[in-house]
Structure prediction request, 589 residues.
Amino acid sequence: MPEHKTLAATGNSVVAEAMRQCKPDVVAAYPITPQTTIVEEFAAFVAKGKTHCEYVTVESEHSAMSACIGASAAGARVMTATASQGLALMWEELYIASGMRLPIVMANANRALSAPINIHCDHSDIMGARDAGWVTLFAETAQEAYDNTIMSVRIAEHPDVLLPVMSCLDGFITTHSIDRVSVMDDESIAGFVGDYEPQNALLDTDNPVAHGNFSGLGGPYFEFKKQQREAIENSRAVIKSVGEEYSALSGRPFDVIETWGMEDAEVAVVVIGSTAGNARTVARHLRADGKKVGVVKVRVWRPFPYAEIAAALKGLKAVAVLDRSESFGAEGGPLFLEVRSALYDLAERVPVVNYIYGLGGSDVKLELIEQVFTDLADIAAGAAAPAGLVYLGAREEA
Amino acid sequence: MQQLTEIRWHARAGQGAVTAAKVVAETALAADQYLQAMPEYGPERMGAPIKAFTRISSEPIEIHCNIEEPDIVIVLDDSLLEIIDVAEGIHPEGAIIVNTCTPPEQVRTALGVADSVKVACVDASGIALDTIKRDIPNTPMVGALIKVAGVVDMDSFKGLLAKNLSKKFGQEMIDANWASVDRAYEEVTVA
Prediction:
């Protein structure tokens, strides 16, 4: 059985700890802003000899992901971290990592994209990378950020998957706040993640392979993309089984969505990340008043848990989807689009409303969540749903 | 029922409010409490007004937002009283603890808070200059906090302080910090 140790630590700090425990061969990172202290603390582990790792500091986030790709293709276990503008600068490399089927694990501190300049919590960065072919997990708390980081290694390296995995945590709210976190001993984590046995490593000279080749018209590009689709579909079963195994080790539950109060809920809020806690807090108060409310938290964003979402929300009188990013010109935010799509095949229509909230770190006060549940109660009682999406808590004049 | 204590810190950047918010949270962990400590990040300029938050609870803490109705407010720099409404949202039975030479009766009048709110004052800067030899009032202010509101245990706090300081400093510095905590605990006055 693993030894558990309880710490008062930031999300960044425990992600760095998880990285150390997963024993990456190579970490390449751009060491200054918009980077987080994840790579700073990991660099300290390397400097103090607490992990054996080739730590490469590069001149940009674009180079950081390029170096990760090179090292991963060579056959190394590779991890890194980024945030906001840094992830944006990695954009073309993200597609190369997934197209080359490289099991790189990257933590992302979810933060806003400019302009105006803003460094605070926001999901715009990851949602911009939504279609890059990475398996993507979200943490609500520092604890989940630690757990997700460790599970990510197993998911990425699984022979049925072989895809990069992004482990997201909310900027500042989760990355920089001190929280109570339980970590396990090094040996248990090492045993759980196991040794990495690369397939198709460039340094395996007995079995020469090529990576990322030219594939012009008539080449296999189209079929490669189909294989990427199959791989991320395969990851559904892998995520579940890795999650179950990790749950047994950690004693903490894991599923692709987490439901609260959904057994008999009539209305529900669907949310990603740290705001799930705010939503449950409000839902608890409403439950105490006899209101049948529920909360669904999405922990795995890619592949999106369509079946699980549909099963959880089936038959509800009204659903609110909370998006911490925009998809300008679309019907709603990215999570809204997915949730409504997940409900399309249900025989009975579930009314879904979309709220954009918390952009640029705008504080998610409990009264805002209360407002959402009030709207849902009105819709459930027959009131018309708001026309179009609602900017929750936005001031009339900024 | 959840026993949740919410503390809001007002300070100027460089006075150690964030560190103090963290150490108080860490002390709570030693008592098997749940905790949360976070700064409100803004432009990182020395001397700029900043806020930090600490939550301590007997149950897991699920809320992730700023503290707008604190049980306790701690003010590390009394020049902030003129420019910020530090008492905003204070719990009717709450406490406001200020680092100042001004007597608490006068501070109470300036703040205009209800009679049920405790107002406590201590010259934490003076104590810090005497003991630690630097105007870093964060540590003595925790001594005042423990006297006025409890929240965390004195021995645990001093133990943790020693552990943190011993990474960089010798016993002399630990003794100086302990002395600052003890003096603030003794000298804080409530109105």
